[in-house]
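Fold it.
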Amino acid sequence: MSKILVTGGAGFIGSHVVERLLKSGRSVICLDNFDPFYDPQIKRRNLEWAQQQPAFILVEGDIRDEGLLKDLFARYEVDQIFHAAAKAGVRPSIQDPFIYEEVNVRGTLNLLACAVQKRVKNFVFASSSSVYGANTKVPFSEEDPVDQPISPYAATKKACELLCYTYHHLYNLPMTCLRFFTVYGPRQRPEMAIHKFTHLMMRGEPIPIYGDGTSRRDYTYINDAVDAILRALDREGAFEAINIGESKTVSLLELVALLEEQLGKKARLKHLALQPGDVPETWADLKKARSLLGYVPCTDIRPGIQKFVEWYNSKEREGKVCAS
C-alpha cells in the first residue's frame, strides 16, 4: 500500500497532519529527529494517538542523513510527501545561521532528490510568510517580490522554494509550496507568542512586548492549516506557491487582550526593543488559495484562542505543560 511521508511529523503542524491523514484512512510514515529546540517529550506526546494506529510508522532520523532517506524510500512505497521538517524560528536563525542552512536547505535538497528518484506523485513543502520580508504592500500576494528576506530563517525558506521550483522544472515533480501565516492552536510550540504568553500570564510573570505592541500578524488556526495541506496533497498540476492564512490581522496588544479575556487574568507587560528579523505586519491575500485549493478558513481568532486555552488548561491539569 502506498504511503504519505510526513517529515517533522512529531511537531506542531506535522502531528496534526499525521492524525488527520490516519483518521481519513491513509497510511503514514512520520520522519522526525526529535530535535531539542524544545523538549522532545512534547513531540513524543504529540504522537501518542498515532502510535496506536496500525497504519502509522515512525522513523526516527534526520533529513540531512542521505543514507537514512535512501533506505526509507527503498523500504516503503512513498506516494506523497508533506515536508515540514526544519529548524524553526526567526531569532535563533540570526544567532546560528549555519545550522539553518544545513538543515533547511541541504535537508530539503536530499528529500527532493529521493522524491525524484522514486517518482513521488506529489510534494507539498511547508514554507513561510517570512519570505515576504518587510513587505509594506498589504495584503501579501504571491505575485509580490520575495527576494529581500530579513532573517536567515526566511532566506532558507525562500531558497527551498527555489529548489522546489527547480526540481519541478527539471523533473516534472508536482510541487506546492504553502506559505503559512503564524499558525496557532493546540500543540503550538512553547516559544511561540500565544503559547509563551499564556504560560507566563498563568504564572503572573511579565510577558515580553517587543516595540510598542502595534505590530500585526495574520493568525491561522491549526485546523485551517491542515485543511489546506490535505487539499494541496490532493492537488494535481504544476508548481505553485500559495498563501495560507486567515486574511485578517491582529495587533500584539489585541492578542494580549484576547488572552486576558480567555484566561481571566491581567497581563503584566515588559516592553523591550524591537528585535532584528521581526516584521511590522503580515497579511495573507487568499485569492490564489481559494481558487486553486478551495481553501476557506473557518476559525476566527477569538474562538481559536478559546480552543487553545482550553487545550492548555487540560495539559496544565495533567502536568504536561512545558515552558520554552
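The CA atoms of residues 136 and 245 lie 17 Å apart.
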